[in-house]
Amino acid sequence: MGKFDKYKVELKNMQVMACTKEFFLDSQFFIDIDAPEVTKGRVSVTMDVKKLIGGDAFEIKFGMSGVVQVPCDRCLDDMDVDVVVSDKLMVKLGDEYAEDGDWVIIPEDEGEINVAWFMYEFIALAVPMKHVHPSGKCNKAMAGKLSKHLSFSADDGDMTGIGVEEDEDLENPSGTPDPRWNELKKILDNN
User: Fold this and answer.
1) Looking at the 3D structure of the chain, how many domains does it have?
2) pLDDT tens for residues 109-127?
3) pLDDT tens for residues 38-52?
4) Structural domain span for residue 147
5) Among candidates 121, 97, 128, which has minimal Cα distance to 45?
6) pTM of this structure
């Protein structure tokens, strides 16, 4: 039995017009998928399969909710992100596997579709583009290293979000600004 066999949906020989299946995607699911966007998680899935009129087309609706772990964009530590997904997949039987617009076509002689990758994609798309720990929750050591390489001073913005306290000195250790920055600021002043 393969890693994703339990996510196969038999469509060709479906005896009823509609059915519902439930899955729980744990961290092992995300490890097996082996994709970089989401590394761990706990997601409950309800999948409704409905045979459309004619019998060779199907609508598969997914309702998912749970928590996934993704790396923080700032400190690279894992962080929890709540996900709620409501999406659908339109499938029809055909000669060979293809994706045609909103439709996924599966070979009629196989008559089944494995929805594991589709569930992963729906979850990955539900994760916000920017994922950053709440203010003060980033890894302190990484935030300290990051603050040493910032191109603006503490007066330019709130640095507390990356773990740098407001009273920390962001300039070089001697306390004086690097003179090369003054030369670059002259360029900005000319614009």
Assistant:
1) 2
2) 888 999 999 999 999 999 9
3) 889 999 999 999 998
4) 140-189
5) 121
6) 0.72
